[in-house]
Design goal:
Elements: H1 2-9, H2 12-21, E1 30-31, E2 36-43, E3 52-54, E4 61-67, E5 75-82, H3 93-96, E6 97-99, E7 102-104, E8 108-110, E9 119-125, E10 130-132, E11 136-144, E12 151-160, E13 165-172, E14 182-190, H4 199-202, E15 203-209, E16 212-217, E17 224-226, E18 229-232, E19 239-241, E20 247-251, E21 261-267, E22 270-275, E23 296-298, H5 307-310, E24 313-321, E25 329-334, E26 349-351, E27 356-364, E28 366-376, E29 397-404, E30 413-421
Parallel strand pairs: 3-12, 22-24
Antiparallel strand pairs: 1-12, 2-4, 4-9, 5-7, 5-11, 6-10, 8-9, 11-12, 13-14, 14-18, 14-19, 15-16, 15-29, 17-18, 20-28, 21-22, 23-28, 24-27, 25-28, 26-27, 29-30
C-alpha cells in the first residue's frame, strides 16, 4: 500500500519510464526470429555505407531483409526515437515523425531460381507515409500481424543535423610505444553554428570502432575548451585495441570455390561451403591487405539480374583449431554478418575429436568479412585481440557521434557525425 501511494506521488513521467523499461526500452540491432536473415540498411546507391541521413537530405535509406520461412507474412514497421544510449526518448512519435507511426511492410518479392525459398522485404526511408522531424538515434522496429508484442527485428540508424564540424586523426597510441597494439582517436569539435554554454554537461560524445557499439568509448569530456572549439586529445580515454585485418571469404558462386573456400558441395537439396581451416593470428606478424572492415556485400558471379532475389543461401562451415579449449568464455564468429553481436547464434562449438572450434552459418551469396572473438563469461565486450592479435597499423573505421541537449532540451540531438579511417586519417 505504501508503495502504491509513493508511486502516485511521483510524476507521470517516472511511471512511464518504469513501464517502458519493462517493455524492451533499450533498442539494438537484433533478430528475434530465426527465419530472418541478411538484414541490411544503407544509403541508397552504396550498400557498404553507414545508415546515416542528414535531416532534410534528398536521399533515402534502404532497408531490406529475407524471410526464409518462404511464406508472405503480415509485417508492419514503426520507428522509435532513442537517446544517445539507445533508450527510448521521452517523446511522442508525433514529435519526431510526420505521417503515420505504424505502416505495413508491403514491398516484397519471392525468390526464384534458388534452392532456398525466401521472401525479400524492402523499405525506403523517408517515404510518403513517414518523414523525420528531429535528429538523433532511431530504431526501426518490424513486428508481425500488427501486434507490437510480436517483434521480428530491430535495426539502428541515424538522422543528423550538421551543426558542428569534426576534424581528427587516428594514430599509434601515445602510451603504447613498445608493443604498438592500440590506436588513439584524437579529434576537435568546432561549433561556430551552435551555442554550447556548458560542454561538460550539454554534449555527449561517442566514438565507435567499425560500427560495433560493444566497445564504444562514451562519456568523453573535452580536454581543452577554446573559442568555438572543443579538443578531445587524450592518452587513455580515447584508445582502442586496434585488432587485425578482418578475415574474408568469397561466397559469390556455387560453381567453383571462391577465395578462402576449401570445398563447395551439394548435399541435396542445399549447397555447403567449407572454408579453409583458419589459425590463430595473435602470435604472427602483421600483414596488411584491403578488406571491408567487417562488412559484407550480397553479390553473385553467376548470371543473375537481381541479387536480392536470385542470390541463394548456402551453409558455410567455419573451423578454428586450438591446442585446447578456451575456458571461462566462448569463441564466436563476429562482424556485420552477426549484426556485431556475439551470442548463441554465432557461438562456436568445441569438437573434442578434431581439437577445433566449429560453426555452421546459413549465409546468402556474397563477399564476407569476419573475425574470431573471445567473449569472457558474463562480459558484454567481445575480445578481438586474444585470437586475432592486435597491431596499430591495422586499418579501422571510427565513427564519431556528437549529441547535444541543453537545459531546455527534451532529447539528444545528433548535431555532428564524422567517420575517420586509421590509414587515410593517420597522424
Amino acid at each position: 500500500m505504501k508503495k502504491f501511494f509513493l508511486l502516485v506521488n511521483f510524476s507521470f513521467l517516472l511511471v512511464f519510464f518504469i513501464a517502458a523499461q519493462d517493455e524492451n526500452f533499450y533498442y539494438e540491432n537484433a533478430n528475434y526470429n530465426e527465419d530472418i536473415k541478411t538484414v541490411l540498411m544503407f544509403r541508397e546507391g552504396f550498400e557498404l555505407s553507414n545508415p546515416v541521413l542528414e535531416l532534410g537530405e534528398e536521399i533515402s535509406l534502404v532497408f531490406k531483409f529475407d524471410d526464409l520461412s518462404g511464406e508472405i507474412k503480415d509485417y508492419y514497421y514503426t520507428i522509435i526515437h532513442c537517446d544517445a544510449n539507445w533508450n527510448e526518448s521521452f517523446l511522442l512519435q508525433a514529435d519526431y515523425l510526420e505521417g503515420f507511426p505504424d505502416n505495413p511492410l508491403d514491398d516484397f518479392e519471392m525468390s526464384f531460381n534458388t534452392t532456398f525459398s525466401f521472401v525479400n522485404y524492402r523499405l525506403f526511408l523517408p517515404n510518403e507515409n513517414i518523414q523525420f522531424k528531429l535528429s538523433g538515434n532511431y530504431a526501426l522496429v518490424v513486428f508481425e500481424d500488427n501486434d507490437k508484442e510480436k517483434i521480428v527485428l530491430t535495426k539502428r540508424f541515424y538522422i543528423t543535423e550538421s551543426l558542428v564540424d569534426i576534424e581528427g586523426t587516428v594514430r599509434r597510441a601515445t602510451l603504447d610505444a613498445f608493443k604498438g597494439e592500440n590506436q588513439e582517436v584524437d579529434f576537435t569539435i568546432y561549433h561556430e553554428n551552435l551555442m554550447i554554454n556548458n560542454p561538460q554537461e550539454e554534449l555527449k560524445v561517442v566514438v565507435v570502432q567499425n560500427n560495433r557499439w560493444d566497445n564504444s568509448k562514451r562519456g568523453l569530456k573535452p580536454l581543452f575548451i577554446r573559442e568555438n572549439a572543443l579538443v578531445y586529445d587524450y592518452n587513455r580515454e580515447n584508445v582502442f585495441v586496434a585488432g587485425n585485418e578482418f578475415r574474408y571469404f568469397d561466397n559469390r558462386t556455387n560453381r567453383m570455390n571462391g577465395e578462402n573456400v576449401l570445398t563447395t558441395d551439394f548435399h541435396r537439396p542445399y549447397f555447403h561451403k567449407t572454408l579453409m581451416t583458419d589459425e590463430v593470428r595473435a602470435n604472427k606478424k602483421f600483414f596488411s591487405y584491403e578488406e571491408m572492415n567487417g562488412k559484407y556485400a550480397i553479390e553473385s558471379q553467376d548470371r543473375v539480374e537481381d541479387y536480392d532475389l536470385e542470390c541463394d543461401y548456402t551453409f558455410v562451415h567455419f573451423s578454428l583449431p586450438l591446442e585446447s579449449i578456451l575456458l571461462g568464455g566462448s569463441v564466436n564468429v563476429f562482424g556485420a554478418l552477426t549484426n556485431w553481436n556475439a551470442n548463441k547464434s554465432n557461438e562456436m562449438n568445441w569438437n573434442f575429436d578434431t581439437s577445433q572450434y566449429e560453426l555452421t552459418m546459413l549465409l546468402k551469396q556474397g563477399y564476407y568479412n569476419f573475425q574470431y572473438v573471445y567473449v569472457p563469461r558474463a562480459e558484454l565486450v567481445a575480445d578481438h585481440k586474444n585470437i586475432e592479435g592486435s597491431f596499430w597499423e591495422t586499418e579501422n573505421d571510427y565513427q564519431i557521434f556528437v549529441y547535444f541537449k541543453d537545459l531546455a532540451g527534451r532529447y539528444d540531438r545528433l548535431v555532428g557525425y564524422r567517420q575517420l579511417n586509421s590509414v587515410t586519417n593517420r597522424f
